[in-house]
Amino acid sequence: MTDPEEDLRPEVPLPIFQISQKVKRYQLYDIKAVTWLRRTHNILGVLIGGLPQSPQQNVFLGLPLELQPEEVRYLVETGIAYIVDDLKNHESALRSVPRQLEKHKEILRKEGMAAARAFEKQKQQKTKEVLQRLSVRQPTPDVEIATNGDDSLFHTPLSRKPIRKAPDLVPYFSTPTTSYPPFPAPPQHSPPLLPDVSCSSYALFNHLHSKGYFLSPGLRFGCQFSVYPGDPLRFHSHFLATSADWDEELELLDVVGGGRLGTGVKKGWLIGGVEKGPLNEDAKHESDTECMESGEKETAGEKVRTFCIEWGGM
Known about the structure:
Blueprint: H1 4-8, E1 14-18, E2 26-28, H2 31-41, E3 46-49, E4 62-67, H3 69-77, E5 81-85, H4 86-96, H5 98-134, H6 141-148, H7 199-210, E6 214-217, E7 225-228, E8 239-243, H8 252-264, E9 268-276, H9 281-289, E10 302-309
Parallel strand pairs: 1-5, 8-9
Antiparallel strand pairs: 1-2, 2-4, 3-4, 6-7, 7-8, 9-10
């Protein structure tokens, strides 16, 4: 008996597509990868694609999934994913695999034919159920005898309509979200590409993620991350997280405003960063220019500290 978790597990490492050169954005198109990352690694991202059945609404969205730069960096550094330059890879793939393109079309045709057969079978089953509910029967034998008598003065032979042949099925057209297989997976770049992220924000993301929290973009609440104790489908967020450098000066009005905002939406305003210990100047400069590799990793005199601020008078 196969494990359902193994059936949902995609091939690792996953390709994450960088779709813009100026403002770098990172997207996933494979629903299996999106589901597995959310369930196994607490990676949320934001769905930004429209739904074909309801194209004129933006309440419920679908693929692709856009990832935060901090999420992408975490996945790349842990070996779960790698970044692909979509423009370069797309052009090279179209030039080098014309035969695989025909194979890809044939696979789509077979999938469309299977979908058409399934729909036709479902339609016939519904028709059968409706006929059973309405109790539709053939003419009774007595009526058949009366009409088939040869001595009837007005007898006319009954004509049977020829049975119509079922029309040939036409395969449905489907638009796949990924092009592999049959195309080969995009090649990995060496050394691996890494997104540009703030050291303080990545350290805070790693620290909270290592504690089992789910982090989504916090733009709607005026912060960097909305922090959930579990999947957002089941929980409300508990914190509004904002990162800062350890020696960064904070305006008092920003602290008061953040605390009041968090309390007003029944959350705590959380601020965190990398604590600086008694390091020499070279070590301090190095830690300022390089991001921490892991939220759990602590060097001498360096760790992530977080503080939660709430407004007590509301």
